[in-house]
Design brief:
Distance between the termini of chain A: 37 Å
Radius of gyration of chain B: 13 Å
Helix content of chain B: under 10%
Number of helices of chain A: 0
Structural class of chain B: mainly beta
Number of strands of chain A: 10
Order of helices and strands of chain B: EEEEEEEEEEEE
Strand content of chain A: over 45%
Distance between the termini of chain B: 41 Å
Oligomer: heterodimer
Largest sheet of chain B: 6 strands, mixed
Shape of chain A: globular
Largest sheet of chain A: 6 strands, mixed
Number of helices of chain B: 0
Radius of gyration of chain A: 13 Å
Largest interface: A-B, 21 and 19 residues
Strand content of chain B: over 45%
Number of strands of chain B: 12
């Protein structure tokens, strides 16, 4: 079946602009995660959605970052007023159980 | 709090060498343990997992055994190939929730 998909695959933006990153999880997966991976670094947890529960936003680095998940499926990560330090690969994962399945990521470059 | 520590890279080996990437963890209860792999230019993929003590996960010639007495989950392969060059991440999932706690990743470079 289809895996996790993310769009766009690459995004170049100017400092100060807003960006939206999209994640389509595997159908039926109740949990959805966003991570950030900076060049040569490990995974940084951003936010976690589980079913209809309130999301765990404990990893969001600033109030410029927000995410929503509509209808328990598609999720959008929004970064407002982007800064150069936001440049990274943003990864989405979904799960139904303990194994997380990752999308290919969105590579964001802020000029 | 819970944590995962894995050996720093890069690890550079010749083809057909024996591989060990160390991973130790700190956790309460009985977590599940995972190895994920990220090949160059690709997304993260689950390599193998183990859900209880003494379980051995295996895939693609890689193995890891869940050792509760040493709180370890070391990744091993008897004979590596150039195609194994990637970044390997060790992770644990707590009993109480399914969030993953990640190690920092180990870059593996295999030379022909």
């Amino acid at each position: 079946g289809a895996g996790v998909s993310q769009s766009p695959s690459n995004k170049v933006t100017e400092k100060g602009k807003d960006v939206e990153l999209r994640c389509d999880p595997i159908s039926g997966h109740t949990a959805l995660y966003w991570y950030r991976q900076s060049l040569g670094q490990g995974l940084e947890f951003l936010i976690y959605f589980q079913g209809n529960s309130a999301p765990d936003k404990s990893g969001l680095p600033s109030d410029r970052f927000s995410a929503e998940r509509t209808g328990g499926s598609v999720s959008t990560l929004t970064i407002q007023r982007t800064q150069q330090e936001d440049s990274a690969v943003y990864l989405c994962a979904s799960s139904q159980g303990r194994v997380q399945y990752f999308g290919p990521g969105t590579r964001l470059l802020v000029l | 709090g819970n944590s995962v520590t894995q050996m720093e890279g890069p690890v550079t080996l010749s083809e057909e060498a024996f591989l060990t990437i160390n991973c130790t963890y700190t956790a309460t209860g009985y977590p599940s343990l995972f190895w994920y792999v990220q090949y160059p230019g690709e997304g993260l993929q689950l390599l193998l997992k183990a859900t209880k003590a003494d379980d051995k996960g295996s895939n693609k010639g890689f193995e890891a055994t869940y050792r509760k007495e040493t709180t370890s989950f070391h990744l091993e392969k008897g004979s590596v190939q150039v195609s194994d060059s990637a970044v390997y991440f060790c992770a644990l999932s707590e009993e109480s929730n399914y969030q993953l706690i990640w190690g920092a990743g180990t870059k593996l470079i295999i030379k022909p």
